[in-house]
Amino acid sequence: MTNFLYNSIYGNNLSILDESWPSSVRNTFFNVLVCFNFIYITINIFKNKSNYQLKNLVDMFAYDLPGRSFRFGVVYIFLSHLYNFRLKLFTRLPEGKPGISSVSSLFASSFWLEREIWEFFGIFFKGHSDLRRLLTDYTYDETPKLRKEVSQLGYMDPGYSEVEEKLKLAMLISNQSIRVFNSNYIT
Asked: What is the pTM of this model?
């Protein structure tokens, strides 16, 4: 294994991974940052290498940090039942049309999670066999809903007109520049 794929970002130092490290840890949570180009190779090594045995993908989620060159991030959480430890794998993606290799061929549990991330963040998973929408309408053709530039208030403001005595919808005018994104707590 090559060391340039791994570097520690929080807590425990995993910058040098040797063959004996899982036998010395129990009930531990490791955090590792991996370049998005090597995510499939890295996850395959952690799953199939006998000294790691990360056979369970517990969760997978994405985040959005506007204003950064690598704006999006995907986080994988794995569990080793044999060695009783968890591994949190971070990867960061550039803004624009972010894409990352799918791990659905390695973990069946990632199939729906990747579809959900694609639908709500617009992160494309290369090699995924069925990237269809899960929760939004198929005719929805706008920016993915959980990106920070999308208005969380909606576009229409319902209100009651006492003069006309009926419910009316008015166009919502909101200034997104007043929203502050404080991402100092994430490195």
From this structure: 0.69
